[in-house]
Amino acid sequence: MIPVKGYAALSAGKPLEPFQFSRRDPEPHDIVIEILYCGICHSDIHQARNEWGGSMFPMVPGHEIVGRVTQIGKKVRRFKKGSLAGVGCFVDSCRVCPACKRQEQQFCKVHTAFTYSSTEMDLKTPTQGGYSSHTVVHEDYALKIPKNMPLERTAPLLCAGITTYSPLRQWKVGKNQKVGVIGLGGLGHMAVKLAASMRADVTVFSTSLSKEADARRLGAQHFVNTKHEGTLAALKGKFQFILNTVSAPHDLGSYLELLDVKGVMVLVGVPPKATDIHAFSLIMGNRRLAGSLIGGIRQTQEMLNYCAKKKVYCDVEVIPASGINEAYERVLKGNVHYRAVIDASTF
Ligand code: NAP
Ligand code: ZN
Ligand code: ZN
Question: Which of 72, 99, 143, 233 is paired with 80 by a 20 to 30 Å CA distance?
Answer without folding.
Answer: 99
